[in-house]
Write a structure and sequence with these properties.
CATH topology of the largest domain: Aspartate Aminotransferase, domain 2
Strand content: 5-15%
Number of domains: 2
Shape: globular
Bound molecules: pyridoxal-5'-phosphate
Strand order of the largest sheet: 1-7-6-5-4-2-3
Largest sheet: 7 strands, mixed
CATH superfamily of the largest domain: Type I PLP-dependent aspartate aminotransferase-like (Major domain)
Radius of gyration: 22 Å
CATH architecture of the largest domain: 3-Layer(aba) Sandwich
């Protein structure tokens, strides 16, 4: 099947169908499941073909750092699902974030980013970029005026995450993208927390969406990966060149795992979201829990924006245990089923204490600014029976009070 035919079929498919059939290319054996091409290189029929391939006059593959049939199937499936013109995948989510930013800026440029973001993203923007003379302004992403006021003549990128890690603050994707577009600034959205199922940044006006595929795309705690999706011009001129030349390429095996994971992602994420909504309500009713932050609840400070841009509350909850770090640790240590770890989006439910782990490098003032208290717990809901999760959380919250 030619790529064009596949695309025109793909455009008519509903998301669930695109995630099962999108991007498939079959070998001469006609395999049902996607082939795993665990190969570094490709053989040419003749010297002439090799020459043509290097000149990009012959469409085949050259070397897996540049491209590979399994990797391309993963890129095509994700691209069709997301409705993007192009997609390039990378070895990790951070490789995708770094490629999306560093491939596009040069010394003297400026980036504006929302302060509530994944720690490593903040490090890339604030520290690594700064070493190359790329400056940044970190703002409160909820405040539209702050975005406008931070713009300088050399601003090239707006970068933000919504909902944010760990406090589930939202940024208005449409409004911020509009501010950027007026000034020719590229808007990049880290869409990990929303999951690819619940939020479509490109449809809402953003230019680029980045993923840590490590999270809901794999969804089963196995392999790392990342993806950058956007317009053909941006991806081929900047991101593709960066990935091909600097080499943060995804391995074919990991691409194959991710490709197969996409088939079940809607079923997994839907089940996780349904459980998460129930658990958020349960936690809000427990004595010893002073606050629950969940974008699907009416008491979320930005519930209206959540309803507008996320058709579902997601599978992450942040909540506050009364009694600070001591009570929070008692709670964590009392859990019998839910695991203490720092990943998210997994089939296994996971709790994290951000103040002492994922966000321990921030100063206390920075943590206060982000609303990360010593009693705050981040909870990623998995695929277990919701009753078992409810029992475990209830007994652990009780134990924290004792
Ligand atoms: C995990 C994560 C990343 C980084 O992804 P890796 O696959 O761990 O490199 C970036 N942004 C967000 C929001 C994440 O949750």
């Amino acid at each position: 099947m030619a790529k064009d035919e596949q695309d025109s079929a793909g455009r008519e498919w509903r998301p669930e169908t695109a995630l099962v059939h999108g991007g498939v290319t079959r070998s001469q054996y006609g395999e049902t499941a996607e082939g795993l091409f665990l190969t570094q290189g490709f053989v040419y029929n003749s010297a002439e073909q090799a020459e043509a391939r290097f000149k990009q006059e012959d469409p085949g593959f050259q070397y897996t750092r540049f491209g590979n049939p399994t990797i391309q199937m993963f890129e095509d499936r994700l691209r069709i699902f997301e409705g993007a013109e192009e997609c390039r995948v990378t070895a990790t989510g951070m490789a995708a974030v770094a490629a999306s930013i560093l491939s596009y800026v040069k010394t003297g440029d400026h980036i504006v980013a929302a302060r509530a973001m994944f720690g490593s993203c903040r490090n890339v923007i604030e520290n690594i970029c700064a070493r190359f003379g790329i400056t940044s302004t970190i703002i409160d992403g909820k405040d539209l005026n702050a975005w406008r006021e931070a713009i300088r003549p050399n601003t090239k990128i707006f970068f933000f995450e919504t909902p944010s890690n760990p406090n589930l603050e939202l940024v208005d994707i449409t409004a911020v993208s509009e501010i950027a577009r007026e000034k020719g600034i590229l808007t990049i959205v880290d869409n990990v927390f929303a999951t690819p199922m619940l939020q479509r940044p490109l449809a809402l006006g953003a230019d680029v969406v980045v993923y840590s595929a490590t999270k809901h795309i794999d969804g089963q705690g196995r392999v790392l990966g990342g993806a950058v999706l956007g317009a053909t011009d941006y991806i081929t001129k900047y991101v593709q060149e960066w990935v091909r030349q600097t080499g943060p390429s995804l391995g074919p095996f990991n691409a194959w795992v991710m490709l197969k994971s996409l088939e079940t992602m809607p079923v997994r994420v839907r089940a996780q979201c349904a459980s998460t909504a129930k658990i958020a309500d349960l936690l809000a009713g427990l004595k010893g829990v002073s606050r629950v932050i969940y974008p699907g609840r009416a008491d979320h400070p930005q519930a209206n924006l959540a309803a507008k841009q996320m058709p579902g509350g997601g599978q992450m909850i942040a909540f506050e245990i009364e009694g600070g770090k001591k009570a929070a640790f008692k709670f964590l240590n009392a859990l019998r089923l839910i695991l203490i770890s720092n990943n998210l989006g997994d089939a296994k439910s996971i709790v994290t204490h951000p103040a002492t782990t994922t966000h321990f490098k921030l100063t206390e003032a920075q943590r206060d600014e982000l609303g990360i208290s010593d009693g705050m717990i981040r909870l990623s809901i998995g695929l277990e029976a919701v009753e078992d999760l409810a029992d475990d959380l209830t007994q652990a919250v009780k134990a924290a009070k004792g």
